[in-house]
Amino acid sequence: MDLSALAGQRPVADQFDSYAQSKLALTMWTFAMAQTLRHAGPVLIALNPGSLLASKMVREGFGIAGKSLTIGANIIVKAALADEFAAASGRYFDNDSERFAAPHRDALDAAKCKAVVATLEATLQRLLTV
Fold it and tell me: Would you say 116 and 28 are in contact if contact means Cβ atoms under 8 Å apart?
């Protein structure tokens, strides 16, 4: 995770790197929040709804139509309602493999996850005072 890029202090190489960094930041934020709120009750799961879904980014970036967006929508509904997700707070679900899986190694580092949260909070605070 590149915290300086996340904070907008350094540009990223390209749009795909920016996208990947944003997805990793969301996963790390989710893991940090799941840890912080572990006794409060909410279930927070990091979820990859599916790769190469029929989004504008896939059409423009890869030149393909992509897979049905319902793939991503269905797993989000399932995560919200299915019993198998009820005790999965702080885990990562990879819909490409249709199972819980290991996330990027940075998401497994609690200190790095806390640093992402701190960077996001500082960035938001800076933007709110402008």
Answer: yes
Q: Work out the burial of residue 25: count CB atoms within 10 Å of its CB; fewer than 13 is exposed, 13-18 middle, 19 or more buried.
A: buried
Pairing state between β 99-101 and 92-94:
antiparallel
Average confidence (pLDDT) per 10 residues, the chain, 130 residues: 88 83 94 93 92 78 84 94 94 95 95 95 89
The structure's pTM equals 0.85
Gyration radius of the chain over CA positions? 16
Q: How far is CA 38 from CA 5, 44, 46, 88, 100, in A?
A: 29, 9, 14, 11, 19
The dihedral through the CA atoms of 100, 84, 31, 54 has a sign that is positive
